Amino acid sequence: MSIASSHDMASRPLKILALLTDGWGMAGGIARYNQDFLTALAASPAVGNIVMLPRSAGDAAGLPAGVVQLASRAGRVAYSLAAFKQVRSQCYDLIFCGHLFMAPLAAALSRLARIPLWLQLHGIESWARPNLAIRRAVRQADLITAVSRATRSRALEWCDIEPERLRVLPNTVDGRFSPGAPPAELAARLGTRGRRVILTVGRLSSQERYKGHDRVIEALPQIRSRHPDILYLITGDGDDRDRLARIGQRLGVSELMRFTGPVSQAQLPDIYRLADVFAMPSTGEGFGIVFLEAAATGLPIVAARRDGSTDALADGELGTLVDPDAPQALAEAITACLDRNRPEPEQPSRFAFSQFAAQVDHLVSSRF
Fold first, then answer.
1. pLDDT by residue (tens digit) across 105-157?
2. In sequence order, what E strands does 139-248 have?
3. Which residue, 48, 60, 63, 46, is CA-closest to 17?
4. Which of 55, 119, 249, 270 has the most crowded Cβ, counting Cβ within 10 A?
5. Across the beta sheet with 14-22, what order do the strands follow?
6. What mean pLDDT is predicted for residues 19-24?
């Protein structure tokens, strides 16, 4: 169904089926994007209510008015059957698909129900040419949004659609992230008192080694020569933790590293407040919401200039962009941040939730 005809049909607030990998109660960048997006979407006057079907979900406390989270379905077959049941038993006006890998299912449901499809792209899952089924599903989408210019540009290399159908809808940052002193108990427990702290927040996954934890570890000997009190705080967990620990042992910097393990969303702002600089020289970020959180908390930031990080750092306005393949440049950039007094916080106003919500409202109101 074309966007124009769907708009003519929609004389009442839209009822939307949202197909998501990560629903309410889950952690990680995609989960947070989904939560922010659905909160903004539910607030649009063009939207009546939203039924969310997640693959994974946790506590649904804090769901916005008008949003319902169905029981999660982890298995592919069970999830597909639940989605088809929804489309056959309910009358929806729009399907939102929150991940490229779910696009073939979403496209099939869109055809079955004869309603428009809105597809979301995040990062590296959409940077390489996918299989034929996914490419066909993408061509069927009435609107596609990407979290950054980098993701949009990579997707346009293979998706064979009109460029105007693929729009950038960047992440937003939660108002809880702001400058302040961390709790004394937290600083004592993590051993940050009297230390200069470098922080990275992200999954320690063998599938996401592009995040660059190892690059920061390899820079520690050089940074220590100028700041012997340095501590590298690594927040997150995953199957790559042991490898990173071994790198630290090989370089003789294990005592400069501390793994916090997973941290709750409630405690995360205080983790940022422990730090003096945020560093994540990633080469595969679709956007990188952690950069916005660090900026809002008042931290100087060092990132790589190769991926969606450039959008998150507003092309260098919110931090320092370096070549991730230049270890000397990374160490010098982090050291320079530690040498300086902390600057006045760069509040990333362009990424404020009010701006994000206005963009979402404009897209759903004008396109559907």
1. 999 999 999 999 999 999 889 999 999 999 999 999 999 999 999 899 999 99
2. 143-146, 166-168, 196-201, 230-235
3. 48
4. 119
5. 67-69, 47-56, 14-22, 94-97, 117-121, 143-146, 166-168
6. 96
